[in-house]
Specification:
Layout lengths: L1 H32 L8 H24 L8 H26 L3
C-alpha cells in the first residue's frame, strides 16, 4: 500500500510540475500585458506561493503520519497525504491558469 501511495504521489508530482509551468506561463503573459503599469508581479507571486506551498504540504502530511506514529502505516499516511494535497494543488493551478484565459 505504501508503494502504491508513493507511485500515486510520483505521478501527481510530475503532473504538478507540468501544470505549474502552464500557470507560470499564464502569469508571465499577464505580467507582459501590464509592463510599465506598476501592476506587474503575477509570476513572482505565483513563484513565492509555490515555494511556500511545498513545505506546507510536507509538514501537513508529516502531521497526518502521527495518526500511526512509529507504525508501519505511518509512511503510507504521509505519502498518501502528499498525493492528495498535490492533486488539490493541481486543480488550484489549473483554475488559476483557466481564469487567466489559458
Amino acid at each position: 500500500m505504501t508503494y502504491c501511495a508513493g507511485e500515486a504521489f510520483k505521478q501527481a508530482d510530475a503532473e504538478l510540475n507540468q501544470v505549474y509551468s502552464e500557470a507560470m506561463r499564464a502569469m508571465q503573459s499577464l505580467d507582459e500585458g501590464l509592463t510599465g503599469s506598476g501592476l506587474e508581479g503575477a509570476a513572482d507571486a505565483l513563484r513565492e506561493a509555490q515555494r511556500a506551498w511545498v513545505p506546507f504540504r510536507d509538514k501537513a502530511c508529516i502531521s497526518q503520519g502521527f495518526m500511526a506514529r512509529g507504525g508501519s502505516m505511518e509512511p503510507m499516511l504521509v505519502v498518501g497525504c502528499k498525493a492528495t494535497l498535490t492533486q488539490q494543488r493541481i486543480e488550484d493551478l489549473k483554475n488559476l491558469a483557466e481564469g487567466l484565459g489559458n
